[in-house]
Amino acid sequence: MILHVSSTVTCFTAEIIMQTWKTILTYDGTPFHGWQIQPELTTVQGTLASAIHHITGESVLPQGSGRTDTGVHALGQVATFTLDCAIPAENLHRALNHALPQSIRVLATEAVASDFHARHSAIGKSYEYRIYPSGIEKGQPGKICSPMLAPYVWDCPLVLNLALLQEAAHHVLGTHDFTSFAAADPDRTTRHAAAAELPVHATNVRTLSCSCWQQSDSLYIYRVTGSGFLHHMVRNLVGTFVDVACGRIAADTIPSILEAQDRSAAGPTAPARGLFLVKVDY
Fold it and tell me: Do the domain assignments include residue 117?
């Protein structure tokens, strides 16, 4: 007996098989109010859930590897969900990309074990933060950030020293309490842990195995890999590194900022639009 037919997918109910699916997504975060579903607002999670319902007739809430904020982009976000109807992976992959807006693309779809979870099963994440340094030295010609690039970078009007960015980033390598670089998580009181990130930790201690800046053409790019990240942690790190790079604070103050375990000790939060979730490790 046929349960539901769409233009690309047919689901059969001769035998109900609960199948967990892992999808890898890339998206432009500009038109979305972040990952997490919110009433009356367009979010990545809500848009994906609507596409799944359109294809299968099933109402599911896909679980992401972590929340991305409004304007944050993803090159490799992972989401999992479970369906009752049997669908070949290639058909589901094709149907999702047909149903989703162009701002979200599914890169891969695969059936996984029922105990696999996009967030709980992950062991690490990698992010990039991209800055277009438009600050100019006195007497130098002006720099203009293209409007085609602007939604994906921080157009920073300050004069930045790349060597100082690199020096500052080196100080956060290893295992530290990153309370000074964490925004208050509005859901933490109900979750009792920073469940928006991975793995679930009882403290703000995280381990960073990569923290470095590189120049790529006209951009300064920060690459960071860690066991988990606190709310706004990468953006707060970048904002503090920029304070170092423009001479507001010294690079060797980063250890004392970490030791303070106080958000007010660190620098400002960098804009969301320059941040990309690159990869999730399992």
Answer: no
Residues in the chain predicted with pLDDT less than 50, given as ranges, are 1-7, 188-200
The number of distinct structural domains making up the chain is: 2
Q: With contact defined as beta carbons under 8 Å apart, do 6 and 98 qualify?
A: no
Dist CA 276 CA 23 (whole Å) = 17
Q: Do residue 266 and residue 134 come from a single domain?
A: yes
For the packed helices 89-99 and 44-56, what is the interaxial angle rounded to 10 degrees? 120
Q: What is the pLDDT of residue 54?
A: 97
Q: How far is CA 54 from the centre of its chain?
A: 26
- Residue-range definition of the domain harbouring residue 165: 124-281
Strand partners, 212: 223
Please give the pLDDT value at position 137: 75
Q: Distance from first CA to last CA of the chain, Å, rounded? A: 38
What is the rounded distance in angstroms from the CA atom of residue 85 to the CA atom of residue 83? 6
96 and 158 inside one domain: no
pLDDT for res 17: 74
What does DSSP assign to residue 156? Answer: E
Give the DSSP H or E segment for 129: strand 124-133
Treating both helix axes as pointing N-terminal to C-terminal, what angle do 162-170 and 233-245 enclose, rounded to 10 degrees? Answer: 130
Among 149, 172, 110, residue whose Cα is nearest residue 274: 149
Cα 174 to Cα 209: distance, rounded to the nearest angstrom: 6
Cα 239 to the center of its chain, rounded Å: 17
**Tokens, residue 268:** 């400002």
Q: How far apart are CA 263 and CA 38, in angstroms?
A: 27
Known catalytic membership, residue 69: yes
List the catalytic residue out of 28, 69, 115, 243.
69
